[in-house]
Each structure stands twice: as structure tokens, then as C-alpha cells.
């Protein structure tokens, strides 16, 4: 199970790196002129990051995490696994939400301002902080 845990943490890092970088790309893409070379380049970067790295990394995080769950590594009578589960589901929801913006940018129909993407950029950071405290400190 140590190997599975290592692979879990590796895939989580890749998922998180993408989840932090993609909204940064949206921050710059949102002020690029529609149809410009710059805007088209952002589309390619966003698609490759999302489909090539973030989604496979999310799937791998779930698979390796669930392997540990089904091997009885988690004491569900504690509170922390439940809090982690809620926040992980929220992070997965955030992932899907980003997929919606990816499509909007691809079709040149994004209407959200730059400030919006700067703000939602903080969401995965906050979720990740809680998740890591739950799984490492196991406070309750
Ligand atoms: C995708 C669904 C996920 C599932 C099903 C899952 C499940 C698990 C399980 C069962 C363990 C072993 C728990 C233990 O040590 O007793 C674990 C470890 C860990 N998880 Fe997750 N996890 C998920 C997502 C995440 C995410 C999103 C993060 C970070 C943002 C994360 C960070 C960690 C870390 C750092 C460990 C290692 C803790 C240790 O040293 O024991 N996990 N995970």
C-alpha cells in the first residue's frame, strides 16, 4: 500500500498543479482579443493542460485513493475522512466547473472578467489546505 500511497500523492500533485495553473491561463486569456494569435495559443495550452494532465491526474488520484479505501486503510468512525471526502468531491466539482470555462473560451464566448478568474484561482488552494490537514494531522 506504500506504493499506492506514493502514486496517489504523485497524481494529486499533478492534479493540483494543473488546477492552480489553468485559472492563471484564464486570467490572461480573458483579456486577449478574440480571434488573436494569442487567444488561439491560450486555447491550445488550456486544452492540453486540462485533457492531457489534469483529467488523467484526477482519475489516477481517485483510483489510487479508492484502492486504499477498499483495502480498509481508513477508519470511518473518525471525522477527518468525511471532511476530506466532502472537500475532494468539491475539488472534483471545481475541476468540472473549469471544464465549462475551457469550452466557453474554446468557443470564444467567455463573458467572465479577469478579476473573476483571479478570485476562483484561490479555491483549489483553500480546498487543498483543508484536505492535507485532514489527512496528515487527522485532527478529529
Ligand atoms: C480523489 C479522491 C481521493 C481519495 C479517494 C483519497 C484517499 C486517500 C486514502 C485512503 C489515503 C490513505 C489515508 C491514510 O493515510 O490513512 C490517502 C492519503 C493521502 N491523500 Fe488522498 N484521497 C483523495 C484525494 C486527495 C487529494 C485531492 C489530496 C490533496 C490535495 C490528497 C492528499 C493525500 C495525502 C497527502 C495522503 C498521504 C497521507 C499520509 O501520509 O498518510 N488526497 N488518500
UniProtKB/TrEMBL annotation:
Pfam family, one: UPF0093
Pathway: Porphyrin-containing compound metabolism; protoporphyrin-IX biosynthesis; protoporphyrin-IX from protoporphyrinogen-IX: step 1/1
Entry-linked InterPro entries: HemJ-like
Chain sites annotated for binding heme: 8, 84
Subcellular location: Cell membrane
Bilayer topology: Multi-pass membrane protein
PANTHER family cross-referenced by the UniProt entry: PROTOPORPHYRINOGEN IX OXIDASE (PTHR40255:SF1), UPF0093 MEMBRANE PROTEIN SLR1790 (PTHR40255)
Family named by the database record: Belongs to the HemJ family.
Classification via NCBIfam families: protoporphyrinogen oxidase HemJ
Name the UniProt record assigns to this protein: Protoporphyrinogen IX oxidase
